[in-house]
Amino acid sequence: MSEVQAANEIDDEAALWAVRSDARGLEPTTDVELAAWLAGDPRRQGAYLRAQAALSLVDRARALPSTDLQPAKAPTLPRRALLAWGGGAAAAAIGGTAIVMNLGTERFTTGLGEIRRAPLADGTQMILNTESALKVQITTRRRQIEVLQGEAWFDVAHDPQRPFIVQAGGARFQALGTAFSVRQLGGRTDLQVTEGVVEASRSDGGQRADVRAGHRLSVTDTDQAFVVRPDPAAIRRSLAWRQGELVLDGETLSEAAAEFNRYNSLKIVVEDPELGGEQLVGLFRTGDPESFVTSVTTLLGAEVRREGEVLRLRRP
């Protein structure tokens, strides 16, 4: 009895490693943990190969008509085919001509000032900006992302059979093999396309628009009309946050202060409206508001007063 249980455990672990290897490109020759697991028991190599074969069949299901499959001869995943990976779950069931794979729903979040790189199971590269929250669900039929708050940039893995859909506020964005960012903040949704084309639509089935590389789209919760405009230079500046930078090119001091406050517990308050309207040009680190304020005092002849976690700027 114990031998049967041990075999089942090996099959389950092999299924887990097969999913990890498929998603991350792991190889026994280069991944130390995978190599150590395989070396721990002579039966693991065979279990691992069987699990890889089962996943390969799931991949074939995307490309072939169901009549081309021969389920009676197909390898199957372990009896307990729940493959836990990366906080989500993948279940592959092979029976009849139906093959379903569900990688579950994962939630990604970042804290104040945190910028997080998060590769997804389908090969898509995702980067989250400060104080962001997203829900991700990947299946064999679709890839669904919901931006609950904040901002994220996606470099989408090409997969024509699985639409990549991002939901934010009342807007829906669909892309195949492209790169773009989505920001949901203060009742406004912004789309910035850096590569390819993104199809934008209202969640209620209203307005639609194709947004091409170098173009931006904005829509608010109260105004449902899409505003699309070309501005590749502004997009490059705007996405500097991926490197932890804030690039200013004509933004006002008040606008710059608001951006810095998104990343830091040390807040900047501009007390003088005239000073707040001054335009700035420069490159700064998002996590260094004090250096920014020092530059402002030098360039604009302002003075700063610190009160706890607040830097107050005003004219002398």
Ordered list of secondary-structure elements with their pairings:
Blueprint: H1 2-24, H2 32-39, H3 44-63, E1 82-85, E2 88-95, E3 98-109, E4 116-119, E5 125-128, E6 133-139, E7 143-155, E8 164-168, E9 171-175, E10 179-185, E11 188-195, E12 197-202, E13 208-212, E14 215-220, E15 227-230, H4 232-238, E16 245-252, H5 253-263, E17 267-270, H6 273-276, E18 279-285, H7 289-300, E19 303-307, E20 310-314
Parallel strand pairs: 7-8, 17-20
Antiparallel strand pairs: 1-2, 2-3, 3-6, 4-5, 5-7, 6-7, 7-10, 8-9, 9-12, 10-11, 11-14, 12-13, 14-15, 16-18, 19-20
Helix pairs in contact: 1-3
CATH architecture of the largest domain: Sandwich
Q: How would a crystallographer describe the biggest sheet?
A: 15 strands, mixed
Query: Strand fraction band?
Result: 35-45%
The radius of gyration computed from the alpha-carbon positions, rounded to a whole number of angstroms, is: 25 Å
Tell me the count of domains.
3
Summing up helix and strand content along with how strands pair, one would put the structural category as alpha+beta
Through-space gap between termini: 83 Å
By CATH, the topology of the largest domain is Jelly Rolls
User: What ranges have pLDDT less than 50 throughout 5 or more consecutive residues?
Assistant: 1-5, 58-102
Percentage of residues in helical conformation: 25-40%
